[in-house]
Design brief:
Strand content of chain B: under 5%
InterPro entries (chain A): AAA+_ATPase, ABC_osmolyte_uptake_ATP-bind, ABC_transporter-like_ATP-bd, ABC_transporter-like_CS, Gly-betaine_transp_ATP-bd, P-loop_NTPase
Shape of chain B: globular
Distance between the termini of chain B: 24 Å
Largest sheet of chain A: 6 strands, mixed
Number of strands of chain A: 14
CATH topology of one domain in chain B: MetI-like fold
Membrane topology (chain A): Peripheral membrane protein
Oligomer: heterodimer
Number of helices of chain B: 28
CATH superfamily of the largest domain in chain A: P-loop containing nucleotide triphosphate hydrolases
Bound molecules: adenosine-5'-triphosphate, magnesium ion
CATH class of the largest domain in chain A: Alpha Beta
Largest interface: A-B, 37 and 23 residues
Order of helices and strands of chain A: EHHEEHEEHEHHHEHEHEEHHHEEHEEH
Number of helices of chain A: 14
CATH superfamily of one domain in chain B: MetI-like
CATH class of one domain in chain B: Mainly Alpha
Strand order of the largest sheet of chain A: 6-7-8-3-9-10
GO cellular component, one term (chain A): plasma membrane
GO molecular function (chain A): ABC-type quaternary ammonium compound transporting activity; ATP binding; ATP hydrolysis activity
Pfam family, one (chain A): ABC_tran
CATH architecture of one domain in chain B: Orthogonal Bundle
CATH architecture of the largest domain in chain A: 3-Layer(aba) Sandwich
Structural class of chain A: alpha/beta
Radius of gyration of chain B: 27 Å
Number of strands of chain B: 2
Radius of gyration of chain A: 23 Å
Number of domains of chain A: 2
Strand content of chain A: 15-25%
Amino acid sequence: MTEGTVTLACRNVWKIYGPDPSALLAGGSVPDAAAIAASGHVCAVGGVDIEVRAGEIFVIMGLSGSGKSTLIRCLSRLVEPTAGEILFDGQDLLRASPRELIEIRRHRMGMVFQHFALLPHLTVLQNVAFPLQVQGMARPAREDRAREVIALVGLEGREGHYPRELSGGQQQRVGIARSLAAEPDLWFLDEPFSALDPLIRREMQDEFLRVQRLLQKTIVFITHDFDEAIRLADRIAIMKDGVLVQVATPEELVLRPADEYVAAFTAHVARAKVVTLGAIMTEGAPPGDTAGRLPASARIEDMAARIEASALPHAVIDDADRVIGHVGRQAVIDVLVNRGRG
Amino acid sequence: MTLAAPDHATASPAGPQRPGAQRWLWPVALLLTLALGWAAPLLEALPGLGWLIRVPSALVIDMQAAVRGFMDWLVNRAHFGLFTFRELTRGIAWLVDQPYQAARFVLVEGWVEGRGARAVTHFPPLSWIAITAIVTTMGWHAGGWRLAAFVGGCFLYLAVFGQWASAMVTLASIVIAVPFGVGLGLLLGVAAYLSPRFDRALRPVLDLMQTVPIFAYLVPILFLFGFGPVAALVATVIYAMPPMVRVTTLALHSVPEEIREFAAMVGCTRNQRIWRVLVPAAKPDLMVGVNQVIMLSLNMVIIASMIGAGGLGFDVLNALRRLNIGAGIEAGLAIVALAVALDRLSQAYARRSARPPTASGMSWLARNRWAPALVAVAVLSGLLGLIWPPAQSFPAEWQITTRDFWASLVRTINVNYFDQLEAFKNALLLNVMIPLRRFLLALPWVWVLALVTLAGWRLGGARLAGLCAALVMFIAMAGLWEPAMITLYLCGLSVVIAALIGIPLGVLAASGHRAGRVIGGFIDTLQTLPSFVYLIPVVMLFRVGDFAAMIAVVLYALAPAVRYTAHGLRSVPSELIEAGTVSGCTRWQMLWRIRLPMAVPEILLGINQTIMLALSMLVITALVGTRDLGQEVYIALTRADVGQGIIAGLGVAAIAIIADRLIAAGAARTRARLGLTGRGGS
Ligand SMILES: Nc1ncnc2c1ncn2[C@@H]1O[C@H](COP(=O)(O)OP(=O)(O)OP(=O)(O)O)[C@@H](O)[C@H]1O
Ligand SMILES: [Mg+2]
C-alpha cells in the first residue's frame, strides 16, 4: 500500500459517557481504564489516533461494545467527542460551525446505516433523491441523479416501490444509493451488511467492491466480521474496549498480530487468503530453474494451484519486475495447512 | 393497602424500621381511622379540640375572590404592549369563528340570505347523500368494505332517525376543533421535543390540564369568550389538545436513532429534520394521538352544549332537563353512532398509516379513482336536490321516530320493576352509601391529612409526602373540605365497585373465551362514548341523586379496569407460565399464584385510570344533583363565577393528583419487587 494523502485524521479522540466526562480529562494526564470505571464513567473511545488515506477502504473492527459505532460517530461528529481533534481535508471538524457542518455533510460526506434508516413514507426514488432535495435541488435534476445511482446499485425498475416492499438486501442497496447521491468524498458505513443473511452479505460485498472500483471513495467501514474485513480492507484498525489495538494491512495482522487479542481474531482465518507470496518467499535469486515468475503482492490462495502443480520453484518479482526471491511447493503447503512461519 | 406494605427487598423510604412495626402500620391506622370516625362527634364536643375535627375558619382563605380579581384584571386591564388581553381573546375568537362558519356553511346551512320565511338559499349545504357517500368512501379507503358499510350505516341512521341536522352541527364543530387541536398539539409537542426545558415546564401544566375536570374548563372560557359556539370550540380545542402534545413528544423521541442520525448526515436544517424526516417517520404513532383528539373533541363538544355549542349535546341536555325520555335516548343513540363511526374511522386511518402504501408507481388520481366519482355524487345530489328536495335533505315524512318506543319501554320497566329497582337502590343507599358518607364527613381533617401524608411517605418518600400534604392543605384552606369528602366517598365507592366488576371481566377477557373477546369489544365501544351519554339511561331508571350518579360513574369508569387487567394477564412472561405448567399448576393455581400477582402493577395502573375517569364523570353527574366538588363547579358554571369554578376545579385536580401519584408510586414499588423492569401499560 503506497502512502497517499490523508483525507481524514483523528488525533487523541476521546468519548467518555457519564456524569462529568470532561472533568476526567481536565488534568491533561491520561486517565486509566480502572479510574474511569471507578468514577462511574464509560470510556467508549479512549485516545484514538487514525489516519484514513484518500481512496482507501479503512475498516474498523472489534467485538460488540468495543466502541466502533461511537468512533465512527465521532468522526462524522454525530456524537460530540469529549476531547480530541478531527481533521477532514485539513479542516478541524470539531471547530466547524453548525452551518459549516451542514454544508460539509450535504456535499462531502455520506453514511450507510446498519438498519438502513430508509424513510418509510417515501418511494425508492424519493428516498435516494432525498439528500438532494434537502439541498434544494430542483426535482427533475435530483430525480435524474437518483435514477443514475439507483441504476449503479442495480435497482432499476424499483424506483416506485416503498421500502417495506423490498428485501433486506434491496433496502440496503437503496441505502447505499442514497448515500452516494450527493457524490460525497468520504463514505462512512456502519456495519452495512450485518443485518443481512450470509449469502446476501457476500453478494453485497462484491457489489460494494464493484462500486468502489468505479468511484474510488475514501471509506471508513465498520464490521465485527473479520472475514468481511479482510475481503474488503486496505487497512484494518482493531479496537478493544474503546482503544485502538493495531492498525495494519490484513496480511500484517495475520502474520504479526500485536497481541493475544488480535491473534485470537486472526487464528481462524484461512491464511492463504491474506498472505502474499512476498511474505513467504525465500529471499535472493532462485538456486536453479524456475517454473515462472509471480508478483510478490499476489495472494497465496490465488497462486497455490500453479505453485503446487510444478515441482520447480517460482521466481518472485516486485513491482518493478525485478526478481527478489523464490517460492516452492513446501512453503505454500505450510501456509495452506496453517503450519509454521509467520 | 396490603400492596402498599413495605418489603425487605426495596429500601423503604422511612428508613430502618423493625419489620414487625411495618407489618402493623396499616392495620393499626385503619382501626384508628374507624375509631376516630365513630368517636369524632364526641371529640368535637370536647372544648378546645374542635379545630382538629373541623377545618377552622381561620385557616380558610378566600381564594375565589383572588381568582376573580385576577380574571377581572386580565379582562379589563391586562395589556401586552401591542394589544390588550381582551383584544387577544377577540382575535382568537375571530380566528376560530372563520373556519367554523365555513364548516357550518358546507355541512349545515349552505349560503342563506335573509331570515325565516324570506330566507333565500343561494347555495345548499352538502346533501345527506353526499356526506354519507363521503364518509362511506373514507371507510372503504381506510379499512375496506366492512368499515365502509359500518360507517355508512351509522350516518344513514342519523338521517333516518331524524338526527341529521343536530349531528351536522356537532360534526361541524369537530371538523374545526380537531385540526386546531392536532395542529397546536403537534407544535407544542415539537417544541417540547426540541427543548427539554420547555418540556419540563409543560409537563406539570399538561398533568393539571388532564386532571382538571371538564366543567372547570368551561367556566373561565365562558367568562373570557362569552356564551356561544366559539367559546365551546375554544374549550374543545384546549381540552382535546394535551394528549396530542404528549403523543407527539413521545413519538418523536421514539423515532429510531439511525433515522435521526441520517437526518443529520444529509445535512438537514432543524426544520427539515423535524418536518421532512421525524414527523413523517413518526406518523403511525401520531395518528394514535389524532384519534384521541377526535374522541376527546366529541366528548367536549357534547358537554360544551352547556356554554352554547348546539347540536346533539344540546338535544340531550334539553331532554335531560325536561326529563323527555324518548328524545334523550334518541339523541344519545345518535351520539353513540357518531362516536363509534368517528372512532372506527380514525383508528382505521391510524392502522393504515402504519402499513406501507403498496400501490406503487401510480399517480395520485390513478390510486384514488373514487375521488372524481365522489365529487360527481356531491354535485349531482345537490343539483337533483334543486328539483327534488329529498335528495338534498332527508324528508321528514320518511323519518322514523323511536321516541315513543323508548318512552314506553322505560315506562314499562319503571312500572314493572319499580319495586325491585327501588329496593336495590335503597338497600345500597341505606347500608353502604349513607353510612360511608357520614363516616367520611365525620373524620377529623387533621387525621385525613396525616394519613394521606403518611401514605405518601411510605410509598414515595419525603417529596411525595410533601406534595400530598400540600394538596390536602389546599383543599382545606380553599374551604372545600366537605364537598371534597363527598367527592372522595362517591368516587371511592364507584371505583371499588368498578374494580370488583372490572377485574373479573378482565380475567375473563384475557382467558381467550369467545365471551371474553365479546366483552373486550364491548368495553372498547363503551370507552368511545362521550361521558354525557351515560347519564341518559341512569336518569331514566334511577332519576337523580347519589345512587344514580354512582351508577353512571361505575359504567363510565369500568373500561380501564377491564382493559388493564386483561393486558396485564396477557403480558405475563411466557417462561413463567411454562414454569407453572411444568410444576403442575391447575388453571386456578396458575391464575391465583402466577398470573394475577404478576399482573398487579398493571392492574394498579388500570385502577389509576379508573379513578381518573371516575373523577371526570363525577363532575358531570352534578347534573343529577350530587353535592360534591362537581356540584360546586356546576353551580359556578351556571353563575359564570370564575373564582368558584377554578378553585373547585383545582380541588378535583388535587384529589386526582394525590390518587395518581400514590398509585403510580405503589405500582412502581410492586413492579420493582416483582423484578419487572419495563414500564408496562397502555
Ligand atoms: N449514549 C451512551 N451512553 C452511555 N454509554 C454508551 C452510549 N453509547 C455507547 N455507550 C457505551 O459505549 C461502549 C461502546 O459502544 P458502541 O456502540 O460504540 O460499540 P460497538 O463497537 O459499535 O458495538 P456493536 O458491535 O454492538 O455495535 C459500550 O460499552 C456502550 O455501552
Ligand atoms: Mg455498533
